Amino acid sequence: xxxxxxxxxxxxxxxxxxxxxxxxxxxxxxxxxxxxxxxxxxxxxxxxxxxxxxxxxxxxxxxxxxxxxxxxxxxxxxxxxxxxxxxxxxxxxxxxxxxxxxxxxxxxxxxxxxxxxxxxxxxxxxxxxxxxxxxxxxxxxxxxxxxxxxxxxxxxxxxxxxxxxxxxxxxxxxxxxxxxxxxxxxxxxxxxxxxxxxxxxxxxxxxxxxxxxxxxxxxxxxxxxxxxxxxxxxxxxxxxxxxxxxxxxxxxxxxxxxxxxxxxxxxxxxxxxxxxxxxxxxxxxxxxxxxxxxxxxxxxxxxxxxxxxxxxxxxxxxxxxxxxxxxxxxxxxxxxxxxxxxxxxxxxxxxxxxxxxxxxxxxxxxxxxxxxxxxxxxxxxxxxxxxxxxxxxxxxxxxxxxxxxxxxxxxxxxxxxxxxxxxxxxxxxxxxxxxxxxxxxxxxxxxxxxxxxxxxxxxxxxxxxxxxxxxxxxxxxxxxxxxxxxxxxxxxxxxxxxxxxxxxxxxxxxxxxxxxxxxxxxxxxxxxxxxxxx
Length: 534
What we know:
Blueprint: H1 7-14, E1 27-32, H2 49-56, E2 61-63, E3 70-72, E4 80-81, E5 87-91, H3 106-117, H4 135-139, E6 149-153, E7 156-160, H5 168-172, H6 182-188, E8 202-206, E9 212-217, E10 231-236, H7 240-248, E11 254-255, H8 261-268, E12 277-281, E13 284-290, H9 300-309, H10 312-318, E14 323-325, H11 348-357, E15 364-371, H12 376-389, E16 392-399, H13 401-408, E17 416-418, E18 424-425, H14 436-439, H15 457-467, H16 475-492, E19 495-506, E20 511-512, H17 515-518, E21 531-532
Parallel strand pairs: 1-10, 1-11, 15-16, 15-17
Antiparallel strand pairs: 2-3, 4-5, 5-7, 6-7, 8-9, 9-10, 12-19, 13-17, 13-18, 13-19, 14-19, 20-21
Helix pairs in contact: 9-11, 15-16
InterPro entries: Peptide/Ni-bd, SBP_5, SBP_5_dom
Keywords: Plasmid, Signal, Transport
Protein name: ABC transporter substrate-binding protein
């Protein structure tokens, strides 16, 4: 999730009913076109899963709502850090209970992180935690436990790293580190994602597949009189245009997929809806992923040609201008972004010349995957037309988001993937988050999000060294090094970075919540802080 200059306009939209004091009780309805894949925090890893996982689970750390400032959650305070910067010691709040009634203890934290690291879990978050001492030995089957994870008593948890990591506290606030109870995972098995149990503000009480998810207040929740709502219903399978009509009739309170393209211009220019619309430029990048292990795409010149073939301005027109053209992988509001990076210019003639030099004077055939929620199929058609203009004949596979994610995370299946609704959005405000989970050797694995399946061990080593720059005064040098790393990746043309999204949300008149709660820079939607007018 990210930010930019349009915040001023968005803040103006907040004035009025959005700032009403939250009232306790009531319910809300949010709509999505696609069903949710899972609520297992070790597995679910997209913009739709994460806000819902936060309803059921908590981590030791979290962010102050609407900001990127860390604060304690399940921990009593921020951790004590050893002099060498490698060991973090947390004290757990006393008396916190899982939704099954059992008290949370420090060994649950050890279990949670061990589970994320376990290859059997197939967690896309594994790569974030391999820097924990003993993690790699555990992953490789050379150890039965992770030596760097300790619970000396029921209220104390410590984690030791192989080397200092400037972003590790951010990593500990990620959904992957949301605490799960071992006995419930054992009971539900592979179905834990549909039968989640955590310490969070809401409990999942119903999930008829393809229809809706119903969350109800956790009456034993420990945190600051939250949540305000008694119930949140997440309706799935609703076409965005149908959902919009439902909102105007008072049947839906929040459009999870945003304002549908067909109604966008009508809504933003209608003064009746001014107080219902919020906007923010996200810290994300929507991109076309190029699988470097498949056919002609193995040649960097072919990938560079594809970058030169894409007309980004045309794509942004398709989304009614709701984007800022991307020149490189990092968004402008991410630390480490290099404003001097120019990227690839739109140059079809140059693209044809590169293809000819690579041995493809007549182009080639390939496949382009996209999720089926509008406007993504139309964007895919635009990309298809641009590619056809330089001789690349791409057939489109338009599928449910979960199906696209599975194909993209499987080697040698998906040559081209339009990220669409799965644009990479910051997990935390540090450039390492745009490297390790999506472009490193660690993430070039089945089920991972390194869809280009690119692995450069030299760049990994540089990123590791940069992450160890934790001393005062090293921040600027660290960010400069990350800018250089992304410049090297851009030369490899693993993505076509197309735009950084300007996200619009639309809420009902009765829903109380503004930018901090509905456009949170980390969690996107913070349901525990939403309320409805009585």
